[in-house]
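Z., the sequence and structure:
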Amino acid sequence: MIHQNLGLEVRKKRKPHDLTEAQKKQRYERGKLFFSYLGPFKVRHIFTMDETWISLDDCNVDTDQFWTDESAEIPEEWKKKTTKEWPKKVMIAIGICWFGMSRAYVVNGSAKVTAQYFVDEILSKVIHEDIPRLYGNSAKDVIFHMDSAPSHTANLTMQHLKDHCVKYIPKEIWMANSPELAPLDYGINGNLKKILSERKATTIKGLISVIKTFCESYDIAEIRSTLSSWQGRVQTMLDRHGGHVEVE
């Protein structure tokens, strides 16, 4: 009700990770080269993907705030936020582009995401299924982008892209330590966890079902808005010589 009356929304501020001078320098030097791949029309050819952990604790989330006044007697349970140790969780891989989102790839709970696993279970399916579905006859024009995770930068992964004639942004200019410059991190993953916080999933199977539904019905306008802001974010980082984009 208070949100409706005042037209306000409560949001938690994110604390950016600390950057060393060496990390800032790397972001700046790589960012100058990476910037050439971005732009109002260039970004439409980029398919960017990443993995993220999702836990059952992301569902049915207790709020960090409660409303009261000075005269009210506050129950003790209102003042506490419950936490669980070792929450059940699942790793998913998703990709986005101007024309939509890939399917959600669920990593086998007992699997380690090695380069071989990534190529066999995720990358090959993205190349042969998702990209053709999203781009149609323009699939050959797609430029692949990932972060610097070991399974992404491995020679096996790079060779697989070459063997299947997939263009990609060279790993040497991917900006490490830069979640605020990765569309899935600064845009999509946060929305996924917000949606999950309103769901009632209590099992991993139920959680996976919610995630898959999320990917199948995600608003393409939000994806395009997220991608359209990419160039500006990188420019802000460059203006700050490698410093954070999201600062007070």
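The mean pLDDT is 84. The first helix runs from residue 2 to 6.

Let me know what you think.
H.
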